[in-house]
Structure formats: C-alpha cells, structure tokens
Amino acid sequence: MHALEITDLDKVYDDGTRALDGLSLTVRDGGFHGLLGPNGSGKSTLIGIVTGLVRGPVGHVHVFGHDAVADPRRARTLVGLAPQEVHLDRFLSARQVLSFHGRYFGMPTAEANARADELLAAFDLEDKAATRPNRLSGGMRRRLLIARTLVHHPRLAILDEPTAGVDLELRHDLWTYLTRLREEQRTSILLTTHYLEEAEALCDTISMIRDGRIVAEGTVPEIIERFGGPRLEDAYLRVMRGAA
Amino acid sequence: MSAADGTPPLPDPRLGDAALRTASRRGTLALAGREVRRVTRLWSQTILPPVVTAVLFMAVFGGALGGELRQVSGIQYLWFILPGLLITTVTAQAFANASTSLYQARNEGYIDDVLASPLRSAEVVFAYMIGGLYRGWITAALVGACALPFVEGVTNWALALLVLMLTGIIFSALGVITGIWADSFDQQAFVAALIITPLSLLGGVFYNVEELAEPWRTLSKFNPIYYLVDAERAGITGLHESAVWLSVAVAALVAVVVTLWAVRMFRTGRRLRP
Lengths: 244, 274
What we know:
The structure holds two protein chains of two kinds. Chain A contains nine helices and ten strands. Chain A has helices at 43-51, 72-77, 94-104, 109-122, 138-150, 168-185, 196-202, 220-227, 232-243; strands at residues 2-12, 18-28, 32-36, 58-63, 66-67, 79-82, 156-160, 188-192, 205-210, 213-218. Chain A has a six-stranded mixed sheet, sandwiched between helices. A four-stranded antiparallel sheet of chain A has the order 2-1-4-5. The two termini of chain A are 29 Å apart. Chain B is mostly helical. Chain B has one domain. Chain B is built from eleven helices and two strands; from the N terminus they run H-H-H-E-E-H-H-H-H-H-H-H-H. Chain B is elongated, with a radius of gyration of 22 Å. The relative contact order of chain B is 0.14. Chain A binds chain B through residues 1, 13-14, 28-30, 48, 51-55, 64-66, 72-74, 76-79, 81, 83, 85, 87-92, 100-101, 103-109, 148, 155, 186, and chain B through 1-4, 9, 12, 14-15, 19-20, 22-24, 26-27, 29-31, 34, 37-38, 41-42, 105, 108-110, 112-120, 268-270, 273-274.
C-alpha cells in the first residue's frame, strides 16, 4: 500500500484556471518524496486536495488506501499538513495551538497536552509555551507550525515549503528532525521546496511538476542521469525549460 | 504499516468506526471549548458591553423615565421590556459571536486547521454555534440577574428558557451563515447593524404592537423577532398578543432550517475552500 496514490487528477478553479491537468503521483509508505516546481505549477493545489482544503477535484486520491475525496475523514486522520503560509490561532498560546490541534484530530486532552509539551521541547519552544503565536518571531512561528503538523502522529506529513524564509541554522535543524522522524517513526513525507539542495539532501524520490502535470520523476541520480547534471538544479532547469 | 520489504500493513487503530466516533466527539468538544474560551477571554468585548447596554436601557426606560411610563398593558414597564431586552441581547450576541469568530478564522487562515481535520461539517458548525449560544445566554443571564430583583418574577420559566434557547440557536446559526458568506468585516457588520439590530428593536421590545397605528401594527407582524419577543414576554410576564405555542413551533422549525442551511453551506465549502 502506498502512503499517497494520485491518479488522473484534474482541478479547474471557478475562474476557469486549470491548476491540475491529469496529474498522477505516488509516494511510497515510509518514503521521503520531493515535489518540485515553479510558483503556480499546482503544488499547493495538489496538497490542498489531499488535505481537504481544495474542493471539487476530478480523479482519484488515496491516502494509505483511503479515498481522500469519498472518505475524507479517514484519509485526513492520517495526514499532517504544514501549509506554506503560517496561519496560527492568535487566541491560543503556543502550547494550546498544539494541544487543540491534537484534540481536533481526536486525541484525549491529557495525551494532546503531553504531546504538545514533547513537541515544544523538540522544537526548542519550551520557554514560549504560554506565548501567543503573534508574539513569536517568524522562525519560531514556522517551528510551531511544523510541530503542529506532527501532533497527532500523522503517517503522512505534507510540508509545503517548510523552510521558506527561515535561517540556515533552523533549516538544518529541521532537516535533522525530519530525517529522524522518517527513520524512527517511518512517517512518510511529501515535501515541496524551492531549495533544490534541500530536496537533494532529504528526498529519496522526486517529482517535478509543471503546468499541473508531473513532467519528471525518479531518484535524484535517475533524474540527473536522464536530464543531465551535474547537479539536480541543472536537471530541474532543463525540465522546466521544456526538455522533458 | 506496510514496509519496504513487503510486510502487510497493520490496520491503523484510529480508523475504526468507533474510534472515529470518539475522535469526532473529542474534536467537536475541543472546538466548542475553544469558542467558549475565546468568549471568556475577551469578556470585556464580548460580555460586558451588551450587559451594560441592556442595564442602561432598563435604568433609563424602566427607572429614570417615571410617571406614565410606569405601566404598559397593566404591568410594570420594566417587567414589560425585560423579555424584549433578553431576546435582543441573545439575538445580537449569538449572531455576533458565531459570525465574527468564523469570519476571523477564515480571514486569518487558521480555519484551515479545522478544515484539514477529520471533523464533519455539522460538527464544526455545532461547535461555532456553541460559542454563539454561550455568549448569548451568559449575557442574557447577567441581564436577567440584574433585572429580577426589580420585577415581579418569571411566570413560566420553562417557556422563557425555551424561547431564549430557540432564539440563540436561530441567531448563532445565522451567524455561522454570515461568517461563511461575508467577504469582509464590512459585510458582516452590515448584516448585524442594518438587519439584526433594527429588527430586534422594532420587534415590540419597548411598546405594545397592538397599540401601534396602521400600517406599523401590520408591518410589525412581518418581523420574525416580534414573535420571539412576544413568546418570551408570555414566559416572563404572562402577557402576550399572538398565539404563543404557534410562535414557539415556528421558531423551532426556523431553528432547524437555519441550522441545516448553515451545515449545507459549510459542507459545500464554496466560500471556505477554493
């Protein structure tokens, strides 16, 4: 069974914009999959459909075998999302942001609180537990957002540009955490990023998306071999310029 | 969990029907708790002003203006206006809370935390309505507590509470609908200021509609809030102009319809999800 299996996915917005055009994608269970593409290529739409934030797609989306369109509750239970934009409930403290999220996903209060404390420690936010998100620095808010993604022990974590705008130190800390998460808990991860060295360092498979379609996929060496290197960046530019 | 070596997947214990039901119950309570916490935390904006406003109305109309204002339809004027003030308070506060909280969550983007959760549309709507009901009822309870020492009491507690309950449900559901529909704070405020408040104040809160001249008497009877005020007045003072149980039955029907409408709007998600 795959963590995520998408077949022939189309999405046309109300204004007529075709965001996805027959897209198919597979993330294997326990895999670390990178989704690369320029702004407007359909990455966030794809993520929105998997997590229920974008309505009315045509096609098939399965999360660990559960139909994310016809049976979204089961699928959503297994998914954690770190969206691109940092939107955190400003009426709650950092600890409450985490514990309420866990409870929305069905965790008992005591378990959600304990998990919140664990993640605050893991993301070096213990001393900000009582602080509201709008009083945290940008880097701290980003860390809190990623911690929130993991509260309910998702089997598939979707991280939409998690390191956009964060400093180098935090980016490397996050790489270490995600690698450990994947190795120790076998959490499957779908990562979108514009930092190709990040995808190269973390992902075992990569898909490149352009105009709502997957135009290249494989392991990093496979993509470099097929489209030319020596770096992933060189292959990416060739793919996006239409060599695929 | 399936492994790379082909190990067959273990079923996730979170995905059984019973586990999902438990998760839904916990999630709904958490979101409702979040709404109640928001009202309580912002008490100086959510609870104090409407209580002060209603108490001032009672002080001015029920106390300071003496003489001929002391009796309406044979009862003490303060007692006469209390039911309408309670309905007006519940109406405005239940509506304001549900619409504002939901609109804020949409506008600031953190509604996605709820939309991406396994909660059903009906559960989310229920939780937002709980926030509206809590704010409406707590403010009405405080207004009633301030007034009760100065009036003759409550004639029919069950009827009075039932009407306040139905009023809260109707207007918190309308608040959810407005919170989903509004594209700006202006639109949301428009509904509150130019529809809800005038209808409330023109619903016979301060006067006996039967004593109005035409066409105002007939026009007043097209105002749905008039029937809620009248039924609440029947519960508190025993005085009423229309068929009370018909008003209650219609209010119950309206409560069901607007709640289902709110759930449907949430489920279709047109204003919530692109």
